[in-house]
Model the fold of this input.
Amino acid sequence: MDQRVKPSPSEIRRSRADNPKTRERDLARELCISEAELVAAHCGEGVLRIEPRVNEILLGLGAVGEVMALTRNESAVHEKIGVYENVTPGEHSAIVLGEQVDLRIFPKVWAHGFAVEKRDGDEIRRSLQFFDASGEAVHKVHLRPASDLSAYRSLVDGLAARDQTPLIDITQNSPTGEAEAPGAGVEELRDRWSRMTDVHEFFGMLKALKLTRRQAIRMVGADYAWRLDAEAVAALMIGAAASGAPIMCFVGNRGCIQIHSGPIHDIRPMGPWINVFDETFHLHLRLDHVAEAWAVRKPTKDGHVTSVEVYDAAGEMFIQFFGKRHEGEEERGDWRGLAEGLPRLSTVA
Done:
């Protein structure tokens, strides 16, 4: 966003009316405002501001039944159709562990919430939309034909905010790219890495060694992490669909990580995007945003586990893939074969 004077709510609404087909995220960028400001400008005109009481929302969404959960970042959009169930609330982190909707949520990041109604011909599309303090979307919930409208309205009524003015305060987030600084050496990193017994120990190891994720995978050596060609990301998705190997696909932002677990089938490249259009899972991924891709091998008590991590030009990981597995199980051979067979970068600068 630049330093130009921001448009007023009425100017934002007029621009929205003049560009009905433009996606909210794209229109907000054109207007040099955040997406949350674009939505807030319509308060009283199809938009109701709601309190982002995350745990209450997660627990209440179960009664709404089937919905579409959407989590995105700048480079990937992850959509799952299902029910919010098996919710574990928490102040610092919350979990939704449904058969389809699988989320890791960080409630303190959710700063703004809205219930949105948009008329599309004779149809009204309803959604809940949540944003961080900078106005970036962290999670959205779109109603489906099978959703319980009465339960949805009851949930929204209980969350309605007193303040319905079409303006919100926006603060700039600090950069999310990890600042690389001198940390542990290769020998110490390889020693700690080799002694992992669970993939969840990885973050603690990085913190203890004062290394960023990319520093670690670049340093550790090709027996644990190797750089892939940019074409490997599309090859992974096409290969997974062809083989039927069930995968796990993680897409996240500051406030939410959304996970798909299972096979993928309908892969469609479209311009710079590669897409999955399955019955309960849609994924939209910008291949032109792939700056680095790595295959990473982490030891566990059940044998090593292989992931594929994809980074943008700012050094942020925007999508991650694993083979589907449960605690106590060895990694599937079909996934391991797929990951290890992806095209590698021939020369790493």
Summary: The chain has two domains: 9-73+111-159, 186-340. The first strand starts at residue 47 and ends at 50.
